[in-house]
Amino acid sequence: MDQQIFLNTNSNLQSVLEFSLDSIMVCDSKGKIVYWNPASEKLFGYTEQEAFGKDLTIIIPNEMHDMHTNGMNRFMSTREGKLIGNTIEVNAKKKDQSIFPVELSLFHWEEDGSIFVCAFIRDITTRIKSEDELADLRSIIDSSPSCVRLIDSFGNLKKVNPVGLDLIGAESPEQVYDACIYDIVHEDDRERFKEFNEMICKGGSGTLIFKIVSLNGTERIFETFARPHQMSNGQIGHLAITNDISERVKADEKLRKKDAELEEAQRLSVIGEFAAGIAHEVNNPLAVLIAKTQLLELQIKSLDIDAEDKVKELFKSLEIIHETVNHTADLIKNLKTFSTKDKFGTLEFSSLSEIIDVALNICKSRCSFAGIELKIDIHEKIEVECSPVSLSQVILNLILNAIHAIETIENKWISIKTKTSEKGLQILVTDCGSGIPDDIVGKIMHPFFTTKEPGKGTGIGLSLSRKAVAKMNGQLYYNTNSPNTQFIIEFEKYR
């Protein structure tokens, strides 16, 4: 049958059919091909001459032949068909017998009593592959242990996988779709997150660690890796893979604290060994000085000297030497005490007055030299269950901290006072300072935190002091309600 039966004389229509990128073919009422455009030749491999007059089944997979024949017969007799006027996806067959997916659109017309069916066919192999890959990608994203999310430049959530929903405490995508992520970012990190999102949506990429407060009130720490992504509306969004690192941060913090504690313990060990060494080396010369002083006193007494005033002066000088040597010997004794290993496992009731005296003996001269008045108000008979060495160290550390803090003040004083009640014993160490600034008061108990210059202080910080008191079943804390700088040590067990 001549092709001009359905092409008529319109050359423009023929040009469209000839140059179409889609395969276009026409078959008659018997299912014979009467038109085959160049795109069909390219797609199926049959030339126009090979296809013309052949049954349409040459491009239909064998298993679909009967279905095609029955459908054509029904349509030709009833003018009703399921496929005519619709677009569907089916498989087609090439000349080399390979099968591939196509998108098929059919329509018909009648001319001079004859019926023609026209088929528009498009190869969708690439699209199907892309859809399969996209489906695989969605499957990977949905099963990913990480949160995968997409937000726009305003922070509105556009897509999120199930893990992300769980992390933010949402029950369904609909609950959070188009919600502003900024609202659940912790207020401490909100501005940083906004700046980060703006940077990503302007074409940048990067990493950010931030904290969120999920819908159920749980705080989590996230680490996100983000890059720009063109959304379906053409705008650039923020595509990110986000992981919950809360447990990792806690573990790192715990490890850091352990390292800090080990370093503090090593530092204390060195201090103890140094103190023990000094005590050993100085004790012998002091013993010689004491013996020689006593010998000089005896020798002067045995001399027949008339100048009584000069003798008194000599005895006074010897007395000063004797007192100085005894004071130094006490210091050495206290150093040896400080070098003793703490015994937190066997706490004992010890005289609080004696414990404080050990600390005061080491720092009295320093306070006197700095013009600091020591105000001591201690109940003499109080005994507290503790490790005497550790409690002396803690009190000495508080005194030394106070000395450094108030050295530039004119009327300087440090007070050590006790208060007792049914709840327990309080040891109040107060100085004339006006308190610790608000911006650092929360840091003073952190390991190694100090406001002192390098080389000043003992290196025994408040962090270690607090831990030592805790091991003695007590508490050490800063009193924010005091008008002066005040630290309080509390014990339940005392007598």
Task: Give your account of this protein's structure.
Strand 16 (474-478) and strand 17 (485-491) form a beta hairpin. Helix 10 packs antiparallel against helix 11, helix 12 runs parallel beside helix 13 (388-406) and helix 13 (388-406) runs antiparallel to helix 15 (462-471). Helices cover 44% and strands 24% of the residues. The chain has four domains: 4-125, PAS domain (Beta-Lactamase, 2-Layer Sandwich), CATH 3.30.450; 144-244, 2-Layer Sandwich (Beta-Lactamase); 249-337, Helix Hairpins; 341-495, Histidine kinase-like ATPase, C-terminal domain (Heat Shock Protein 90, 2-Layer Sandwich), CATH 3.30.565.10. The chain contains 15 helices and 17 strands.
DSSP helix fraction: 40-55%
Number of domains: 4
Q: Give the low-confidence spans.
A: 1-6, 454-460
Q: Quick one: biggest sheet?
A: 5 strands, antiparallel
Key terms:
17 strands, 15 helices, Beta-Lactamase, 495 residues, alpha+beta, Helix Hairpins, disordered N terminus, single chain, 44% helix, five-stranded antiparallel beta sheet
